[in-house]
Design brief:
The complex is a heterodimer of chains A (341) and B (652). Chain A is built from 15 helices and 13 strands. By secondary structure, chain A is an alpha/beta fold. A six-stranded mixed β-sheet of chain A has the order 6-7-8-3-9-10, sandwiched between helices. In chain A, helix 5 packs parallel to helix 7 and helix 14 runs antiparallel to helix 15. Chain A is globular, with a radius of gyration of 23 Å. The model of chain A has no long low-confidence stretch (mean pLDDT 89). Among the domains of chain B are: 192 residues, MetI-like fold, CATH 1.10.3720; 227 residues, MetI-like (MetI-like fold, Orthogonal Bundle), CATH 1.10.3720.10. In chain B, helix 9 packs across helix 10 and helix 18 crosses helix 21. Chain B is globular, with a radius of gyration of 27 Å. Chain B starts with a helix and ends with a helix. In chain B, 46% of the residues are buried. The N terminus of chain B is likely disordered. Classes of the chains: A alpha/beta (341), B mainly alpha (652). At the A-B interface, helix 4, strand 6, helix 5 and helix 7 of A face helix 11 and helix 12 of B.
């Protein structure tokens, strides 16, 4: 990826305690876990760096208390981080004035919250129009735009309903419509579907993918659900105790977990939908003929063909060159790795 | 009294065994009584050793009031204008402009329309009938006068309370100091506010308004703090991410999201204002309160009942209106067009107004209900009271006397005999046992101060009355609470009765008490009882309801009888909650102390009452503080006890 990142975090720290800045300085900006424990400080986010590229869905995943919510609040400056940089479109967000920050939020950022954060005294229409209202848009302009957003998330006809008259899934659709109303470049979603029932969650994930295909936003998405991460993410970052343990594509994470912690998460991952044929193909001395499979295909799609065949099946790249082969044994081992047996 | 601790310090080898609280109390009593017997000033602090705080306070206030006279004059003048406007609109009219006041028909109808808007048809009927009561029984001008003060004071107190509350949520130090000031303010009886106000502002409507204002302020500020602090984090963050400036966040997000709690604050302001307006008649606020006070003092029970019912109806109407507004949930509807479609209630009121003004110009009876058309049921009530005192009093009297002989007199003699070191020592021991040194020191300082100021005897008499009332409240309230917790039907009835009882201004309780018991200490206690039993019932009920179902099922499965389940499971688990109920009961009994002074007593309430006409600010204020100190001490000690129990039960 040679593109310019849309947003970059550089050595981001968020420390809670009596004097966080002094604490970091005392330990040369690199306190150890022992330092934290000894001086009763909490390192919610510890030295986190990553880039998000335009149009990418970056998932930050971790258990509760891992620091993922603090991280997204540090990036959006809902809570100011203790140290580090957040470069957004070439400027350090942490150095913007309050007025500049308000301008950026009014035009370039949208955020969706776990418990929706809808204003209970306003109708759906007025909730969605709220960000436009505070930036001073005229009533006609903001109502028109809000109606457009409500149509986009499939809630037309409910414009005059109040949040409490809607189901959880519908409320979150309002939250999504509101976060998109200002036409943001950056879209932050903080566990948007965690408060919903499993079936509705699934439906909302599809809805999210549909919207993203349409809008191509740059997304930071927080979740504690690894299946959701794999389903939605272009890349996944796993957090533990404030550290970013591994940042990789779902496939790399499943096939090459950085440590036992990540391996634990990936253990029950749907390997058939994550791993590609290319990653499990073994090299062959000479190109094979017969039927072949694209290297970028998921192994779940290839499994019926491979398992039905007695002989190895050729694997080809996008240009049709044979880059290896895959047989039944390799397929079965990839689908059912030994540690799971 | 410090001997108990020192006796145990000698052996160094084994850690001294911790004395149980009853042991410590017994030691303190023995030592204290012995000391008092040996040296009389340890029994009763001699009057000549009292420090003249009250004179200093009085002098200070007189000096202060002359110093700020221009400011208080200006404030009075400023406040008299909105009051004048409200009175002119409601019942005086504008003689200079030859304009009549609003026709009573329009106000009665308007109240009904307001009821319909807030709560539907039932409330509309109740509001309309209540307003009609005021008119038909000839109480209209007095009621409107009272209402004028309420109408002007409520927005003032609500706005100021809101501002203070907002300030507190922005600044922790402000919140802490406001909280402690409010603790004292709310524990001080209504009447004690009147003294300083009289010195600064004199007698009349405006001083009454200001005293009311001071009393109604804290609940609004408290609800504001609570409401803003409990706005969900997600909503605040959504507001900030939408790009709100701090000001937009406050007005468009925080305040609307906290609306329900703020309205609860407004409800409290309204209720406190009404309760205070009645009491403020002691400093010359005319209106229903003053009329009621006169009737009570002249023992015209029939009139007093008419007026008392009027005040109660106003209170219930205002309470139900605000409650109904709080309970209202937003409902989507098809947007209607046109003014009438969009504002049906405003339109119908305007229509009614025009119609009634037109009708009033034709027939004066629509403007002001003529005297000869008003009714009165005071006569029958009076004969009823006569009948009661002739036929029933012989039966009530033995009960009253038994109560006096077996409960009140022994209690009273006990408290008056109690040497002060024992009182202070026992309170300190309780505080130390449940919390620590700070809580041991608090009652010693508060009670010690009152003793030094020469208020020991009225203070003990107050505690005596409150103890008597609390014992009766507990004996009556806890069984009712238990019963209600086990029978939904009883619970339903009890809740209705409790809700209604709590909306009555405290004054009202004096009427039936005088009717049935005439004046005596027992009457005072009964008046407190009627007012203060509600929390004992309510907290017992809630405490038992909150016992986890699984625990009850476990007890039943173990073979416990219902009685065993009650004594061994429900009551022990509900105990901390019940304690808090008793705490509230004591607070309400204390609030009533000052009111019962009107029908005769010798306690701190009487001191406040007596201080009023002579403008003896020091006396009234210190006596008020004394009541507050008793309340604060009881609150902290019982609170610490309940907290300790909750911790032990793992419920904290």
């Amino acid at each position: 990826m040679s593109e310019q990142p849309k947003i970059s975090c550089r050595h981001l720290w968020k420390v809670f305690g009596a004097d966080p800045v002094g604490f970091l300085a005392r330990h040369g900006n690199a306190p150890t876990s022992e330092n934290f424990a000894a001086e009763r400080y909490i390192g919610a986010v510890r030295d986190v760096s990553f880039d998000v590229y335009p149009g990418e869905i970056l998932i930050i995943m971790g258990l509760s208390g891992s620091g993922k919510s603090t991280l997204i609040r540090a990036i959006t400056r809902l809570n100011d981080p203790t140290a580090g940089e957040v470069i957004f479109e070439g400027h350090d967000l942490l150095k913007t004035t309050p007025a500049e920050l308000i301008e950026i939020r009014r035009h370039k950022m949208g955020m969706v919250f776990q418990h929706f954060g809808l204003l209970p005294h306003r109708t759906v229409l007025s909730n969605v129009a709220f960000p436009l209202e505070v930036r001073g848009a005229s009533r006609e302009e903001r109502d028109a735009r809000a109606r457009e957003m409500i149509r986009l998330v499939g809630l037309e006809g409910r414009e005059n309903y109040f949040p409490r008259e809607l189901s959880g899934g519908q409320q979150q659709r309002v939250g999504i419509a509101r976060s998109l109303a200002v036409g943001p470049d950056m879209w932050f979603l903080d566990e948007p579907f965690s408060a919903l029932d499993p079936l509705i969650r699934r439906e909302m994930q599809d809805e999210f993918l549909r919207l993203q295909k349409l809008l191509r936003k740059t997304i930071v998405f927080i979740t504690h659900d690894f299946d959701e991460a794999i389903r939605l993410g272009d890349r996944i970052g796993i957090m533990k105790d404030g550290h970013l343990v591994q940042l990789a594509t779902p496939e790399v994470m499943v096939s090459a977990p950085a440590d036992d912690y990540v391996r634990e998460f990936t253990r029950n991952a749907p390997r058939d939908r994550v791993l590609t044929v290319g990653s499990i193909a073994s090299p062959v001395p000479a190109p094979l003929g017969g039927i072949n499979i694209l290297a970028s295909a998921k192994i779940g799609e290839a499994a019926p063909i491979v398992l039905a065949s007695e002989k190895p099946i050729a694997v080809v790249d996008a240009e049709g060159r044979c880059i290896g082969a895959i047989d039944r044994t390799a397929m079965i081992r990839a689908l059912y790795p030994e540690e799971r047996a | 009294m410090s001997g108990g601790g020192q006796a145990m310090t000698a052996p160094q080898l084994a850690p001294p065994p911790r004395l149980s609280l009853p042991m410590v109390v017994v030691i303190i009593i023995v030592l204290g009584v012995a000391a008092a017997w040996a040296w009389p000033p340890l029994a009763r602090w001699p009057n000549e050793w009292a420090i003249p705080f009250r004179d200093w306070v009085t002098q200070g206030f007189i000096w202060f009031s002359t110093a700020v006279k221009p400011a208080t004059r200006a404030l009075s003048w400023l406040l008299s204008w909105p009051l004048w406007l409200a009175e002119a609109l409601l019942f005086r009219g504008f003689p200079a402009l030859h304009l009549p006041p609003l026709p009573w028909v329009a106000i009665v109808g308007g109240t009904a329309i307001l009821g319909h808007w807030a709560g539907g048809r039932g409330l509309a009927i109740f509001c309309g009938l209540s307003a009609f009561y005021l008119a038909i029984f000839g109480l209209w001008p007095d009621a409107m006068q009272t209402l004028s003060i309420v109408l002007v004071t409520v927005p003032l107190a609500a706005a100021t309370g809101l501002a203070l509350g907002l300030w507190a949520t922005r600044n922790d130090r402000v919140e802490r100091s406001l909280n402690s000031v409010f603790d004292v303010m709310q524990a001080t009886p209504h009447m004690a506010y009147l003294g300083p106000v009289v010195i600064l502002f004199g007698f009349g409507q405006v001083p009454a308004m200001l005293a009311t204002f001071g009393f109604a302020l804290p609940p609004m500020a408290r609800c504001t703090i609570l409401g803003l602090r409990t706005v969900p984090q997600d909503i605040l963050e959504a507001g900030r991410m939408a790009g709100c400036t701090p000001r937009q966040l406050l007005w468009k997000v925080e305040i609307p999201a906290a609306e329900k709690t703020l309205m609860l604050g407004l409800n409290q302001v309204v209720m406190q204002t009404l309760a205070m307006v009645v009491i403020a008649s002691l400093v010359g606020a005319s209106g229903l309160g003053q009329k009621l006070l006169f009737s009570l003092q002249q023992l015209q029970i029939g009139k007093a009942v008419e007026q008392g019912v009027a005040i109660t109806l106003i209170a219930i109407v205002l309470d139900r209106l605000t409650q109904a507004y709080i309970a209202k949930v937003p409902e989507h509807m098809v947007p209607k067009t046109g003014f009438i479609g969009r504002y049906p209630h405003v339109s119908s009121f305007l229509l009614l107004l025009v119609a009634s003004v037109a009708a009033a110009s034709l027939f004066h009876g629509f403007a002001v209900l003529p005297k000869e058309m008003t009714l009165s049921y005071g006569g029958p009530i009076n004969s009823g009271v006569r009948w009661v005192s002739k036929e029933l009093f012989p039966y009530i009297k033995p009960a009253r006397d038994a109560l006096t002989i077996w409960l009140m007199l022994p209690l009273r003699n006990f408290y008056l005999w109690l040497p002060w070191p024992v009182m202070l020592g026992v309170l300190a021991a309780i505080g130390y046992h449940f919390s620590g040194w700070r809580l041991a020191l608090l009652p010693v300082c508060l009670f010690g101060f009152m003793m030094l100021a020469g208020f020991w005897e009225p203070m003990m008499l107050t505690i005596y009355l409150v103890t008597g009332a609390t014992i009766l409240c507990v004996l009556i309230g806890i069984p009712i609470g238990i019963w209600a917790a086990h029978s939904p039907r009883v619970a339903h009835v009890t809740r209705g009765v409790c809700d209604t009882l709590q909306t009555f201004p405290s004054f009202i309780y004096l009427i039936p008490v005088i009717m049935l018991f005439q004046t005596s200490d027992v009457s005072n206690v009964i008046a407190m009882l009627a007012y203060a039993t509600v929390p004992a019932i309510r907290f017992t009920y809630l405490g038992i309801l909150r016992v986890p179902v699984a625990t009850l099922e476990a007890a039943t499965a173990s073979g416990a009888t219902p009685w065993q389940r009650l004594c061994k499971v429900e009551l022990p688990i509900a105990f901390p909650e019940i304690l808090l109920g008793i705490n509230q009961t004591i607070m309400m009994a204390l609030a009533m102390v000052a009111i019962t002074a009107l029908i005769g007593s010798r306690d701190l309430g009487q001191e406040i009452y007596k201080a009023l006409p002579g403008a003896d600010t020091g006396r009234g204020l210190l006596a008020g503080l004394g009541i507050a100190f008793i309340g604060i001490t009881a609150d902290r000690l019982i609170g610490a006890w309940a907290m300790q129990r909750k911790r032990q039960l793992g419920m904290a």
